[in-house]
């Protein structure tokens, strides 16, 4: 049950004794909420480094005298809520380092005849008492000189020996749960010289006629007195006010969750005769006054309030302060009336002319004020006011102009249902809070503003920096902010704190680049990095903004797409160039034609042979072909049937099909080769198809006629078989002389007949 720091948690394990073998290295041992009944000598003997021992909420009724003797380093011992019927000084005799001792909630009735704590020289806080605790004797606190906190549950304390607490020289904060009012004064007299803050709970104050400072040691140190859940009447509160004036050191009075039975009929004459109070601060929270609407206006108390500097009356159904009384708060600097029943009509009486003349801070939040214009008008009567909180009032509207105190610097208008901000808000402000108002924009000119709070609104962008040039702190938490740019951020030149947490950030590349590369932004952003989370893109939703890194494709999609398009275009261009250079188009066309030709029979049946020869020639050689060769062959005896594209191709039929069909319907294919033939595109096609159809069959259906000398290398390299034929087979060459021409015709006719 131990972690790396040697904190061992054995709570809620149903243990009936301390587990054996507690090791020396353990520093914290938590045995709370078990069923341990006894602590024996050997249980903690080895735990010499133990600093905290938590044994509360067990059933401990017996502790061996030397159980804690080895715990010289122990600083915290909690034995509260057990069944100890007595306390023994021997238990604590060796606990020289003990600072915090909790013994409340047991069953002992007293602390014994002497002090159980005499050896605890370093004790800082001590918690004592239980519902059965009834007696405090002299000497019970001997040996204790200084306590930061002393808490005594004396709800049923019935006997207190005078001087029992006098031995403690200094107590910073004492909490006393006390119902017996008869011994209250005796305890207070013993504490006036030592305690700084005394807190008394559940007491029903007596009508004390005897002086509270009688037989008290001076000088007095008590500065603050708090009553919690106490019960007052008109008579007891009057007497208490008189009695407390004798405590010249008392500066602050506090009453929390108390009950006042009465109508405010106080003995103001006796209070006035008793002189001036030294109290400067009065705080009243949640005081319950039955029939509070019948409560008197405290007329006659004017002389008792002119030295008061701070007054808080909260959650106590205050609906008005009479103007006459308000004018006597001449020294009051701080007034807090939050969570009461003030309305605009009563505010006119509460803040009348010349009332609260020194007031600097006013809190009217959580009241029932409805008109901001009227509220500002009444508050403008306070000439020295610089701090105003009117939040959580349902104003609903905001006028274009308002009257305010001339030196107002702080204004809280949060959660007031104002739909926008207008020039009603004074230009003198240094701090403005308009959180929780569903504002969609903020563009006020506030040249002195240093802090601006816009939490829980509907802003989609940061407010402009130009109207608020001196802004140091800005809160736009929980708005509709998606991002903010480097320019927006840097426009606030004096910004030291920006709280943009709890927004739904769109983690775009620009936003992430700014966040990752802006120097020192982590020191400026409040709640960084935990409270800054991406809402989109979907792939990174829920991830912290600072931890997200998007890919190049996600960040520069348009650029990447453009580059891809350019690359594709260049590849296509390259393929076109390569195809042109290496006749790729030709290969594709020929492949298609060859595939079509393959589906047809390799040789047409004899009945389908229409021509003796298909003549392939260039248009530039048409004069020789048509006027010389055709006349010679077709007028021969017997005549030869020649197929010429000009004459015999079927009109409207695809030219490639015409070429293939003509070659298939001819017994021979006669090529009239020349330089023009090599350059002719259609001659190439005809040569190509004959190459596919005829040369692949390894026959002699092709007849080559060289009209003019031509180099075999001039023939395109892709016609490898044609080049081979020209290199290995005889071809007919048109001679220049007439005698040789006759031999040429005889040879050509012989070739056609073969």
UniProtKB/TrEMBL annotation:
**Lipid bilayer topology:** Single-pass type I membrane protein
* GO cellular component terms attached to this protein's record: plasma membrane; receptor complex
Q: Name one GO biological process term.
A: innate immune response
Quick check: keyword Disulfide bond in the entry? yes
Q: Keyword set for this entry?
A: Disulfide bond, Glycoprotein, Immunity, Inflammatory response, Innate immunity, Leucine-rich repeat, Membrane, NAD, Receptor, Repeat, Signal, Transmembrane, Transmembrane helix
- One Pfam family recorded for the sequence: LRR_8
Q: Which residues form the TIR domain?
A: 609-752
UniProt cross-references to PROSITE patterns, sorted A to Z: EF_HAND_1, LRR, TIR
> Which ranges does the record mark as transmembrane?
559-580
Keyword Transmembrane present in the record's keywords: the answer is: yes
Q: Which InterPro entries match?
A: Cys-rich_flank_reg_C, EF_Hand_1_Ca_BS, Leu-rich_rpt, Leu-rich_rpt_typical-subtyp, LRR_dom_sf, TIR_dom, Toll-like_receptor, Toll_tir_struct_dom_sf
> Where is this protein found?
Membrane
Q: Which domain of life is it from?
A: Eukaryota
Cysteines engaged in disulfide bonds, as pairs? 2-8, 323-352, 402-424
What family classification does the UniProt entry report for this protein?
Belongs to the Toll-like receptor family.
Q: Could you tell me what this protein is called?
A: TLR21 protein
Q: Which organism is it from?
A: Vidua chalybeata (Village indigobird)
């Amino acid at each position: 049950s131990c972690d790396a720091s040697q904190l061992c948690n054995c709570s809620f394990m149903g243990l009936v004794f301390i587990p054996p073998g507690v090791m020396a290295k353990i520093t914290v041992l938590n045995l709370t909420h078990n069923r341990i009944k006894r602590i024996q000598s050997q249980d903690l003997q080895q735990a010499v480094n133990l600093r905290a021992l938590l044994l509360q909420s067990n059933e401990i009724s017996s502790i061996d005298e030397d159980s804690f003797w080895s715990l010289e380093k122990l600083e915290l011992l909690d034995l509260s809520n057990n069944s100890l019927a007595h306390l023994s000084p021997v238990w604590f005799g060796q606990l020289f380092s003990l600072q915090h001792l909790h013994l409340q909630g047991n069953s002992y009735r007293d602390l014994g005849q002497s002090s159980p704590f005499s050896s605890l020289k370093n004790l800082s806080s001590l918690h004592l008492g239980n519902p059965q605790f009834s007696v405090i004797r002299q000497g019970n606190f001997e040996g204790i000189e200084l306590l930061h906190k002393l808490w005594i549950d004396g709800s049923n304390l019935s006997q207190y020996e005078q001087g029992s607490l006098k031995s403690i020289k200094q107590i910073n904060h004492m909490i006393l749960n006390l119902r017996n009012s008869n011994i209250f004064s005796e305890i207070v007299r013993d504490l006036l010289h030592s305690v700084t803050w005394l807190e008394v709970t559940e007491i029903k104050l007596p009508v004390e006629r005897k002086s509270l400072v009688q037989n008290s040691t001076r000088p007095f140190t008590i500065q603050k007195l708090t009553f919690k859940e106490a019960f007052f009447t008109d008579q007891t509160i009057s007497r208490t006010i008189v009695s407390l004036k004798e405590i010249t050191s008392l500066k602050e009075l506090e009453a929390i969750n108390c009950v006042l039975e009465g109508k405010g009929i106080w003995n103001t004459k006796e209070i006035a005769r008793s002189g001036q109070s030294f109290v400067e601060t009065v705080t009243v929270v949640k005081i319950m006054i039955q029939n509070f609407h019948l409560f008197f206006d405290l007329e006659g108390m004017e002389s008792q309030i002119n030295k008061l500097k701070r007054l808080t009356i909260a959650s106590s159904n205050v609906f008005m302060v009479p103007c006459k009384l308000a004018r006597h708060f001449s020294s009051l600097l701080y007034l807090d009336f939050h969570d009461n029943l003030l309305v605009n009509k009563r505010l006119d009486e509460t803040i009348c002319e010349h009332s609260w003349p020194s007031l600097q801070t006013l809190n009217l939040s959580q009241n029932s004020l409805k008109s901001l214009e009227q509220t500002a008008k009444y508050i403008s009567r306070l000439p020295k006011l610089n701090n105003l909180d009117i939040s959580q009032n349902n104003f609903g509207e905001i006028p274009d102009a308002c009257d305010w105190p001339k030196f107002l610097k702080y204004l809280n208008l949060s959660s007031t249902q104002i739909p926008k901000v207008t020039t009603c808000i004074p230009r003198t402000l240094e701090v403005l809070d308009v959180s929780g108002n569903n504002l969609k924009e903020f563009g006020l000119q506030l040249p002195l503003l240093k802090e601006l709070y816009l939490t829980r609104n509907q802003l989609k962008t940061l407010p402009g920096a130009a109207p608020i040039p001196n802004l140091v702190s800005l809160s736009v938490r929980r708005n509709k902010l998606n991002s903010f740019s480097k320019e927006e951020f840097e426009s606030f030149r004096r910004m030291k704190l920006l709280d943009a947490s709890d927004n739904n950030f769109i983690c775009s590349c620009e936003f992430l680049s700014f966040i990752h590369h802006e120097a020192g932004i982590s020191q400026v952003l409040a709640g960084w990095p935990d409270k800054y989370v991406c809402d989109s893109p979907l792939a990174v939703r829920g991830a912290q903004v600072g931890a997200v890194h998007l890919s190049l494709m996600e960040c520069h999609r348009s650029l990447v797409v453009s580059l891809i398009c350019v690359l594709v275009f260049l590849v296509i261009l390259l393929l076109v160039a390569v195809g042109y250079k290496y006749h790729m188009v030709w290969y594709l066309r020929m492949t298609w034609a060859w595939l079509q030709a393959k589906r047809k029979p390799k040789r047409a049946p004899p009945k389908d042979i229409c021509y003796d020869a298909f003549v392939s020639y260039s248009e530039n050689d048409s004069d020789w072909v048509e006027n010389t060769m055709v006349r010679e062959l077709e007028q021969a005896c017997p005549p030869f049937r020649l197929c010429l594209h000009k004459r015999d191709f079927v009109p409207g039929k695809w030219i490639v099909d015409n070429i293939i069909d003509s070659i298939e319907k001819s017994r021979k294919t006669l090529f009239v080769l020349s330089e023009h033939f090599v350059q002719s595109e259609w001659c190439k096609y005809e040569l190509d198809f004959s190459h596919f159809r005829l040369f692949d069959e390894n026959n002699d259906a092709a007849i080559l006629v060289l009209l003019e000398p031509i180099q075999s290398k001039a023939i395109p390299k892709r016609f490898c078989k044609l080049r081979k034929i020209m290199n290995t087979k005889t071809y007919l060459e048109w001679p220049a002389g007439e005698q040789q021409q006759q031999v040429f015709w005889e040879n050509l006719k012989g070739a056609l007949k073969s």
